[in-house]
Amino acid sequence: MIEELRQSTNTGGIADKSHAVVRNYIDGKWVESLGKETVEIINPANGRVLGLTPLGTQEDVDRAVKAAREAFKTWRETPVIDRVQILFRLKTLLEAHVEELTELITLENGKTIGEARGDIRRAIQMVETACGMPSLLKGQVSEDIAAGIDCHAIRRPIGVFAAITPFNFPAMVPFWFWPFAVATGNTFVLKPSERVPLTQVRLFELIEKAGMPKGVLNMVQGGKEAVNAILTHPDIAGVSFVGSTPVAKHVYQTATAYGKRVQALGGAKNYMVVLPDAQMDSAVRTVLDSCTGCAGQRCLAGSVILSVADAYPAIEAGIVQAAKQVTVGDGMNPATGVGPLISKAALERVKGLIQSAADEGATILIDGRQAKDLPEDGYFLGLTVIAGIKPHMRIAQEEVFGPVILLSQVPTLDEAITWLNGSEYANTTTLFTSSGAAARKFSYEVDPSMIGINIGVPAPMAFFSFGGSKNSFFGDIKAHGHASVDFYTDTKVTVERWFKDSSIW
Ligand code: NAD
Question: What is the pTM of this model?
């Protein structure tokens, strides 16, 4: 398996044939981590070990930051039109390797081949958008802000930035950050999820091939120790985080206490509201895909479906029927609709949440724990549909992160909005309707910052900005799009007056 991986990825990022320990990428070189402990990288479709992630140390982070700080001196002086040439070359390389990267994502994350292709395609869109940095980075000028005085504001890179990323989008999420940071003239340290580092290892090989100068982009493998070293490092100017809410809070509180800019994207509990005037067939398909795509392991996954009044019977019947048609299995198989969960622990956690719903009086319409014909060795759960959900239930409040659809009937749109605004999370929400007035009311009144109208996964594209509110986001400036230029630059304003020199003209 390891040799297969090595050949398929041609990876310099894997240190040792027998153990396939992934390496750090520091100062343009693949180097072994100083961490002695490792975490297994497991194929969730069959439980087999693909390799080992070393748990990097403070010293690993320090070496990466030193390289990034040194590289910043020349990188910030490199014209932005030259900086983005590397991204243009990378875009071409990524296009040539889409299928290989897709397989690698499915191998270590479990999502289906189609979903994995979407993961890498979204990463490529980030690179494409960052290629526009010469335009995005332009400043502002005003003449005569007072008599004979002009003012101009320019955006300047700040220094070394870092990102800490989750398991669920091995390719895309790290690319929410570094292309924008690097294109704006900063240098960077990435700490990918220790559970899915292989995709980034292969991507870094391609980044190296695209001609990224040494030290500009570095990668340190690891977990908690590496994260805490990043959060407290005196030479890191800002940190981007994506992951669960408790860790997002910790990252925000620690890194801001150390004087850094921070954007920390956390967990979610996403509600979908169906009005009786919705196109029901489309709503059913969209709900099913939103709640169960990527095995429910998306921060934009639908979770609780609030059907208003007469909308309920059609939604319940449609979801139950559609859920039974979905094939759960190895994501590598093109016939698979839903792949495994990331780990045994995740599987047990979701099963426990399903049991809690039954214990609290909900009705399990389809119990994925009882699903037949699931591959034995992986972390599979059949699609699960639960009705009679009430706001006080544990499963109605916690993020499930599994292929589970929760159904409830509410009397009015107002009641649905009150319920969803009562959640501690506010990442995304969707309304299904054919009424523009209802859509406007919904968008106006709901707390989540990413809203879908007849759209199940309203993910902002690379050229818009991404992030929720309340316990789904800690910080002020969101990810990618225009916001990333604000996050990665300081605005420097010069106010100037020049006196006439009559001896010259
Ligand atoms: P996680 O919080 O377990 O891990 C995320 C990162 O934090 C990893 O790199 C990990 O090494 C590090 N980490 C984990 N525990 C830590 C600790 N105690 N101290 C310091 N660092 C620690 O998240 P995950 O399980 O990898 O990802 C799933 C979560 O991510 C879900 O809650 C999901 O909603 C969220 N997510 C959010 C968004 C968003 O845009 N809001 C996007 C994707 C995923």
Answer: 0.96
